[in-house]
Amino acid sequence: MNLLQTRWEELADIKRVLAKRDWFPGTSGNLAIKVDHDPCSFLVTASGKDKTIETNEDFLLVNALGKPVNDTHLKPSAETLLHVEVFTKTNAGCSLHVHTVDNNVISELYGDDGSITFKGQEIIKAYGLWEEDAEYTIPIIYNHADIPTLASEFSKFVKKDAGAVLIRNHGITAWGRDALEAKKYLEASEFLFSYHLKLLSLKALKVTI
Ligand SMILES: CSC[C@@H](O)[C@@H](O)C(=O)COP(=O)(O)O
Ligand SMILES: [Zn+2]
Q1: DSSP state of 176
Q2: Where are the extended beta strands (E) located within 102-178?
Q3: 83 is in an annotated binding site
Q4: pLDDT tens, 30-61?
Q5: How far is the CA of 125 from the centre of ligand 1 (A)?
Q6: Contacts 24+ apart (CB under 8 A), 117-122
Q7: Has the ipTM of the complex gone over 0.95?
Q8: What angle, rounded to 10 degrees, do the helices at 3-20 and 179-208 form?
């Protein structure tokens, strides 16, 4: 198998797993995996497709500008420019974007604060933070409809080879040095969102009864 096929299979595996979790409602979400560093090229999901279905047209190869490398009728994801920021500013190898109810609610609850910080949770180790009092902060940005504007706002928080950014009432983009790390950041974040919302609801219930 050549490098392109290997990366295709890796991304297809992640897409299959995330689809099983219902993390692509209404055709939302997009995934990207780096193929080459110099010049930069990456596979990205084709735009507007039902990402729960597997086809041989799920991904296309794009360059550092997010433009298709080969002649194709496929359109790169509408949010390809965000993945461009990840791959051109860091050594990340994979970038994942999903819309979930939990990430949308968290982004709305804490959107005015501009970030949410988690602490005192074992799963924070998934971000590579092993100290007992470790904290992990996820920035929350405004959901600009203009994608170049959204990408440039997003870019302000793309500083490390692995990370996560919430887009208010839209979704999350998480990335890592490889597919495993990007998935780990994404899953840890969704775990923390779900835990936090459950805890808030139960605390509110306790107050009212
Ligand atoms: C129906 S989801 C809205 C889309 O604009 C977008 O946010 C999204 O995540 C999927 O867009 P896509 O172009 O398929 O990658
Ligand atoms: Zn989106």
Answers
A1: E
A2: 115-119, 135-141, 163-167, 171-176
A3: no
A4: 999 999 999 999 999 999 999 999 999 999 99
A5: 30
A6: 118/192, 118/196, 121/192, 121/195
A7: yes
A8: 10
Residue nearest to atom 8 of ligand 1 (CA): 28
pLDDT in tens, 56-109: 999 999 999 999 999 999 999 999 999 999 999 999 999 999 999 999 999 999
Report the nearest-CA residue for atom 15 of ligand 1.
77
Residues 6+ apart with CB under 8 A from 134: 119, 124, 125, 127
pTM: 0.97
Distance 1 CA to ligand 1 centre (A): 30
Q: Which of 18, 23, 24, 27 to mutate to test the pocket of ligand 1 (most atoms within 8 A of CB)?
A: 27
Residues within a 6 A CB radius of ligand 1: 26-30, 45, 47-48, 77-79, 97, 99
Give residue-wise pLDDT tens across range 143-199. 999 999 999 999 999 999 999 999 999 999 999 999 999 999 999 999 999 999 999
Domains present along the chain, CATH in parentheses:
3-208 (3.40.225.10)
